[in-house]
């Protein structure tokens, strides 16, 4: 019954910024390991950024470190991904994912780790 709904995707030129949102509803748990993944046709879904909502700890893929920031608004039950200095290789379908827990365990970079997924929002970065 947990649902995730992404929004905020769009088309931008290289060097631009975009903020994605993920609204969580129907939750039966207090804390989650939450993540943003992205995927392009013909490639495996890859993790972009991770946050443990209870502890506030985060992790990022090397390709986005220093450019992307994952954050949460507990009052709004919403996850964000602030993307800056966007590159064409950032293009893809971005998905929000969540798994109940007070912390993110070692397998959190694997899509199979997450119990709940949103439907995705498209991000296109042109050069």
Describe the fold and architecture.
The chain has 127 residues and is mainly beta. The protein contains no helices and eleven strands. The strands form two sheets. Strands 2, 4, 5, 6, 9, 10 and 11 form a seven-stranded mixed β-sheet that branches. Strands 1-3-8-7 form a four-stranded antiparallel β-sheet, with no helix packed on it.
Oligomer: single chain
Rg of Cα set: 14 Å
Count of DSSP helices?
Answer: 0
**Proportion of beta-strand residues:** over 45%
Output the structural class: mainly beta
- The low-confidence runs, each spanning 5 or more residues with pLDDT under 50, are none
Number of strand elements: 11
- The residue-averaged pLDDT reads 95
Percent in helix: under 10%
Q: Please state the overall shape, judged from the principal axes of the Cα atoms.
A: globular
Order of helices and strands: EEEEEEEEEEE
Characteristics of this structure?
0% helix, four-stranded antiparallel sheet, 50% strand, 127 residues, globular, mainly beta
Quick structural summary:
The chain has strands at residues 3-7, 10-13, 18-25, 32-39, 46-52, 58-60, 68-73, 78-83, 92-100, 116-117, 121-126.
Write the layout of secondary structure elements.
Blueprint: E1 3-7, E2 10-13, E3 18-25, E4 32-39, E5 46-52, E6 58-60, E7 68-73, E8 78-83, E9 92-100, E10 116-117, E11 121-126
């Amino acid at each position: 019954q947990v649902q995730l709904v992404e929004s905020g995707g769009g088309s931008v030129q290289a060097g631009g910024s975009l903020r994605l949102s993920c609204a969580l509803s129907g939750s039966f748990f207090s804390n989650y390991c939450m993540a943003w993944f992205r995927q392009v046709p013909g490639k495996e879904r890859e993790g972009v950024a991770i946050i443990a909502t209870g502890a506030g700890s985060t992790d990022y893929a090397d390709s986005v470190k220093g450019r992307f920031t994952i954050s949460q608004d507990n009052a709004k039950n919403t996850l964000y991904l602030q993307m800056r200095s966007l590159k064409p290789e950032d293009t893809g379908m971005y998905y929000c994912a969540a798994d109940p827990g007070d912390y993110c365990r070692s397998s959190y970079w694997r899509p199979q780790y997450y119990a709940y997924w949103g439907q995705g929002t498209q991000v296109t970065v042109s050069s």
